[in-house]
């Protein structure tokens, strides 16, 4: 029987359908997901370079393979063959394990993403999904939190102030934006009635959650950029102030693993947005209404891939368009804007769902509540603009007449006139006095 043959089977898999596949089919799914992620990373690198080159009136990769398609593979081979440099003072065990801790959770997160409905593979009915769990979405949040440990440990073990600052920035950034991301999921759970990715896709048969829960979708779009540490929220890797951030001291395959984890997270966040808000593998409304077989067989894989790459292109377009924000602006957006707004939106959604379950007409209630929420948000923005970015509390009075200490109250910085390496002073021999030439003596220089 052909691998792509489709025998009659339930098109919408359920949570109870998982865990019954033979071992060879489970292994094939894991291998297919691994290969898919590696190829997606290679293609994402090529698409990113070509798109940004077009935006900046450059050529982009065009040497390795047709249209430069093999440029990502060439870069991977180059990284693998480069010398692996390990600084002398690092904690070697943690230094080596940190890239692994960052890359492995990125692969695990994709196992719960549904690619399509139930199909037949060599006579076995199986869902186009690695596996599913009653709390599948929480697995993605847990794995993204584990990946941050790799970044923090990389910065700490490098024994470099730049790497340490990059790791601390990443931990603070992920804490603030992951909370807001989790809050954006709550409204989806309330409407779908489940945390299973299969159940969430099945709940979007009629209307996508990006339409019903537009504020949650917008909050997720912002938080996924903060979660992925990419422009405009790539503060842990800020070249202007941190050289390279948490991976400053890394090279060769260790650096390649951080690079791989970043692009896999890019694909995972895009796939999660597709699953939770854009109907997953289901075809858009015009196609699904005209074509009855659009959501059956292997065709849903095409719709899923289109949505996935649209999100990846969105990431790339933002990188080529927006500048990097300041770190205080980044944290202020996460803690003072996204979190309070998400909490208020969850209360509104929960109230509407409760009233609807009681049989009340919630359209007018929802409209009035949305107007009230809009007024509160507008008043908050007007208040913040009126303050003009002033800090809370009085500013300290300057004391003394001397020059201000650049290191006061901040990270210890060695004096600018003293040579140093990683915060340790370096002794430089003083120049030996030279004997003046007769010409210099005659001219009065010496």
Automatic annotation (TrEMBL):
What parts of the sequence cross the membrane?
A: 23-47, 93-115, 135-156, 177-201, 207-226, 255-278, 298-317, 337-355, 361-383
Q: Where in the cell is it found?
A: Cell membrane; Membrane
Give the GO terms filed under biological process for this record: aerobic respiration
List the InterPro entries: NADH_UbQ_OxRdtase_su1/FPO, NADH_UbQ_OxRdtase_su1_CS
Asked if the keyword Membrane belongs to this entry, the reply reads yes
Q: Which topology term describes how it sits in the membrane? A: Multi-pass membrane protein
Recall the GO molecular function terms of this protein's record: NADH dehydrogenase activity; oxidoreductase activity, acting on NAD(P)H, quinone or similar compound as acceptor; quinone binding
Q: What is its EC number?
A: 7.1.1.-
Q: For this UniProt entry, what is the primary localization, expressed as one broad class? A: membrane
- Report residue spans for region: Disordered: 388-446
Where is composition skewed (Low complexity) in this entry?
A: 399-410
Q: Name one GO cellular component term.
A: plasma membrane
| Pfam families (UniProt xref) | NADHdh
Annotated family: Belongs to the complex I subunit 1 family.
On subunit structure and binding partners, the annotation says:
NDH-1 is composed of 14 different subunits. Subunits NuoA, H, J, K, L, M, N constitute the membrane sector of the complex.
Which HAMAP family is this protein grouped with? NDH1_NuoH
Main function: NDH-1 shuttles electrons from NADH, via FMN and iron-sulfur (Fe-S) centers, to quinones in the respiratory chain. The immediate electron acceptor for the enzyme in this species is believed to be ubiquinone. Couples the redox reaction to proton translocation (for every two electrons transferred, four hydrogen ions are translocated across the cytoplasmic membrane), and thus conserves the redox energy in a proton gradient. This subunit may bind ubiquinone.
Name listed for the protein in its UniProt record: NADH-quinone oxidoreductase subunit H
Q: Which organism is it from?
A: Actinomadura macrotermitis
Q: Which gene encodes it?
A: nuoH_1
């Amino acid at each position: 029987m052909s691998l792509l043959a489709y025998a009659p089977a339930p098109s919408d898999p359920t949570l109870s359908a998982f865990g019954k596949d033979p071992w060879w089919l489970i292994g094939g799914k894991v291998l297919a997901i691994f290969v898919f992620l590696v190829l997606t990373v290679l293609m994402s690198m090529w698409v990113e370079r070509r798109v940004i080159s077009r935006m900046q009136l450059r050529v982009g990769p065009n040497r390795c393979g047709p249209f430069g398609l093999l440029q990502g593979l060439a870069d991977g081979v180059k990284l693998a063959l480069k010398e692996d440099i390990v600084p002398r003072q690092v904690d070697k065990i943690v230094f080596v394990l940190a890239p692994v801790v960052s890359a492995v959770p990125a692969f695990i997160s994709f196992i719960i993403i549904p690619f399509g409905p139930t199909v037949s593979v060599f006579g076995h009915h199986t869902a186009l999904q690695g596996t599913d769990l009653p709390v599948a979405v929480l697995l993605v949040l847990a794995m993204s939190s584990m990946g941050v440990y790799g970044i923090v440990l990389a910065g700490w073990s490098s024994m470099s102030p730049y790497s340490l600052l990059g790791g601390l920035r990443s931990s603070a950034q992920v804490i603030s934006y992951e909370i807001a991301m989790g809050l954006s999921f709550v409204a989806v759970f309330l409407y779908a009635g489940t945390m299973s990715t299969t159940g969430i896709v099945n709940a979007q048969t009629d209307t996508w959650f990006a339409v019903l829960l537009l504020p949650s979708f917008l909050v997720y779009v912002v938080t996924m950029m903060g979660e992925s540490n990419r422009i405009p929220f790539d503060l842990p890797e800020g070249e202007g102030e941190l050289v390279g951030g948490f991976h400053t001291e890394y090279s060769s395959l260790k650096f390649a693993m951080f690079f791989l984890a970043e692009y896999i997270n890019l694909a995972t966040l895009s796939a999660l947005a597709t699953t939770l808000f854009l109907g997953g593998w289901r075809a858009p409304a015009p196609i699904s209404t005209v074509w009855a077989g659009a959501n059956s067989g292997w065709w849903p894989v095409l719709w899923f891939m289109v949505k996935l790459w649209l999100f990846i292109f969105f990431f790339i377009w933002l990188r080529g368009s927006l500048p990097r924000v300041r770190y205080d602006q980044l944290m202020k957006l996460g803690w003072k804007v996204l979190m309070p707004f998400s909490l208020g939106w969850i209360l509104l959604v929960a109230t509407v769902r409760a009233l609807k379950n009681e049989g009340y007409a919630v359209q007018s209630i929802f409209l009035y509540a949305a107007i009230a929420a809009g007024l509160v948000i507008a008043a908050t923005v007007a208040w913040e603009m009126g303050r003009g970015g002033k800090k809370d509390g009085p500013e300290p009075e300057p004391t003394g007449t001397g020059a201000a200490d650049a290191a006061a109250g901040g990270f210890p910085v060695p004096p600018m006139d003293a040579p140093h390496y990683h915060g340790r002073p370096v002794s430089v021999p003083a120049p030996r006095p030279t004997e003046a030439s007769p010409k210099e003596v005659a001219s009065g220089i010496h």
